[in-house]
Design brief:
The structure holds two protein chains of two kinds. Chain A is an all-alpha fold. Chain A has nine helices and no strands. Chain A folds into two domains: about 30 residues; about 210 residues, Orthogonal Bundle (MetI-like fold). Helix content of chain A is about 80%, strand content about 0%. In chain A, helix 2 runs antiparallel to helix 3. The C terminus of chain A is likely disordered. In chain B, helix 2 packs across helix 4. Chain B has a domain of about 130 residues. Chain B contains eight helices and ten strands. In chain B, the strands form two sheets. Chain B has a six-stranded mixed β-sheet with strand order 6-7-8-3-9-10, with helices on both faces. Chain B has a four-stranded antiparallel β-sheet with strand order 2-1-4-5, covered by helices on one side. Classes of the chains: A mainly alpha, B alpha/beta. Chains A and B meet through helix 6 and helix 7 of A and strand 6 and helix 2 of B.
């Protein structure tokens, strides 16, 4: 417990130290705020422009979470399908790998072509980019379930659905949550990416516009907001993970990592 | 026990009948015979121990009876009907305690009540009441009352195996199948669990099929011992154990008992060659 607190304090000092260093170096080396604004400048911009930024924050959050939710639904469905059936696994896997190796940036223009610019391509990009890690993790978790555990249920005459529900899925939860933490971060990347290319709303668009107007501190303010939202969502899923899958880590560490 | 609430149907037919049942894995040149055609009959309430060298097909017979695998030829009947018909309620315990790590001991033991009829239909209603009491009563009987809310990794191997026995018995099975359940335990814990199992058996009188390497275990617990030959296995000896039950653990040091296990040992030594 004491070690834990120590680590927290150290990690907090590292963050504070990082920004202090940034501030001090900028002043010492007289870096132009057109190249790299100081954290204090960014903070001021954040504060003064916040009313303007707020709707864009909501927009990005909306696109990310909607895309993420769709991605989870689709990812879990496909994952369960190919994780429970050896045949489906063998048949579908090459295609999935093919899809996953397409750089998602390349898909955005197509989505814009189909759905026009705006919220829809942002949601879809967020979805597409986060589906694959979820599929792979769910499928792996299910496919590696110990046959012994399944036999316990089978000898009781359990149906395939009961085996899946009582053994397969709980056993897969640690894999699922590990993938959720990756997926939520990726969804952000997808949504912002799409906003940057084709939207007039969202943090991605704000940063794009700001950079073409040389409002560099606003660009960095956007980055800050993205980082904060990313950390918040990651922390939320870590917390949920510790709650749901504490058994996998023997419940020792309920701390948010 | 709560079994009174669920009257058992009368079974005129033997509990287990294997008619020339065989198991072959794979096909063609790669085919492996796990069990040559075997015939075995077991009456209800009997306690049969199946012993033999490893790889002789003992566990295969258990897996046949529990319907985890199907016979390649021949028939497996439980209570006179095909094993797949679920005519008899089955409880099974493996050598590995196979507790689900995300559930507490109480919830692990309760699992069969969630799956097996007639318990299943009122599971949602009774899981916090009658079923919970039922689980606690059984855990009490094996000395695990204080561990109901612990997780499996917090228990020792012997305790896990006790919980495993509870899980195999909680739904009052007609048929208890045990696959070397005490194989991984030390001698003291093992003897303790023999007595626990004997008490549970005499208390509930299910039909028990026990697969084991341990001749003393077979002799102490069973009413009938079948010896199997090495691969491909078949039953070469089928003898009743003429000791009254309940048996005291001291019985394993009596001359009669030693003579019986010695006889079995020699038989198995012969068939291993």
């Amino acid at each position: 417990m004491k070690d834990n607190v120590k680590i927290r304090i150290m990690s907090l000092s590292l963050i504070v130290g990082f920004f202090l260093m940034w501030e001090v170096l900028c002043i010492m080396l007289q870096v132009s705020d057109l190249i790299l604004p100081r954290p204090s400048e960014i903070a001021v911009t954040l504060w003064t422009r916040f009313p303007v930024l707020w709707p864009h924050i909501l927009q990005t959050l909306y696109a990310t979470l909607t895309g993420f939710a769709l991605g989870v639904i689709i990812g879990v469905s496909i994952g369960v399908l190919i994780g429970t059936s050896r045949v489906a696994y063998g048949v579908a896997y090459p295609l999935l790998v093919g899809f996953s190796s397409i750089p998602k940036v390349a898909v955005v223009p197509i989505l814009v072509l189909w759905f026009g610019s705006g919220t829809t391509p942002a949601i879809l990009t967020a979805m597409i980019i986060c589906v694959f890690p979820i599929v792979v993790n769910i499928a792996t978790g299910l496919a590696t379930t110990e046959p012994d555990l399944e036999d316990v249920l089978k000898t009781l005459g359990a149906s395939t659905r009961e085996v899946l529900w009582n053994v397969g899925l709980p056993r897969t939860m640690p894999y699922f949550f590990a993938s959720l933490k990756v997926a939520i971060t990726l969804s952000f990347v997808g949504a912002v990416l799409s906003e940057t290319v084709a939207s007039n709303r969202g943090i991605g668009n704000v940063m794009m516009t700001a950079s073409s107007n040389f409002q560099v501190s606003l660009v960095f303010a956007g980055l800050f907001i993205l980082a904060l939202m990313g950390v918040a969502l990651y922390a939320f899923f870590s917390f949920l993970e510790a709650r749901v899958t504490g058994w996998a880590t023997r419940g020792k560490d309920i701390a948010v990592t | 026990m709560a079994s009174a609430a669920y009257p058992q149907p009368v079974h005129p037919r033997p509990a287990i009948e294997l008619h020339e049942a065989s198991v072959v894995f794979g096909s063609g040149d790669a085919a492996v015979t796990a069990l040559t055609p075997t015939t075995l009959r077991m009456e209800r309430g009997d306690f049969l121990a199946l012993v033999g060298p490893s790889g002789c097909g003992k566990s295969t017979i258990l897996r046949l009876v529990s319907n985890l695998i199907k016979p390649s030829s021949g028939q497996v009947l439980l209570g006179g009907r095909d094993a797949a018909a679920k005519e008899m309620r089955i409880g099974m315990a493996f050598q590995n305690p196979t507790m689900l790590p995300w559930l507490t001991i109480e919830k692990n033991v309760m699992l069969p009540l969630k799956i097996v009829e007639p318990f299943k239909r009122s599971f949602q209603r009774d899981r916090k009441g009658a079923y919970r009491d039922r689980v606690h009563a059984l855990l009490e009987q094996v000395g695990l009352r204080d561990f109901a809310n612990h997780f499996p990794w917090q228990l020792s191997g012997g305790m896990l195996q006790r919980a495993n026995l509870c899980r195999a018995l909680i739904h009052d099975p007609d048929l208890l199948l045990l696959d070397e359940p005490f194989g991984a335990l030390d001698q003291f814990t093992r003897e303790e669990l023999w007595q626990t199992l004997q008490d549970l058996y005499l208390d509930r009188k299910p039909t028990v099929l026990l697969v084991t390497h341990d001749l003393r275990e077979a002799g102490f617990l069973a009413r009938r011992i079948c010896v199997m030959s090495a691969r491909p296995g078949r039953i070469i000896s089928d003898k009743a154990v003429m000791l009254p039950q309940p048996r005291d653990i001291g019985v394993i040091y009596t001359p009669d008992f030693v003579e019986m296990t010695q006889g079995l040992r020699e038989l198995i030594a012969q068939v291993r060659k």
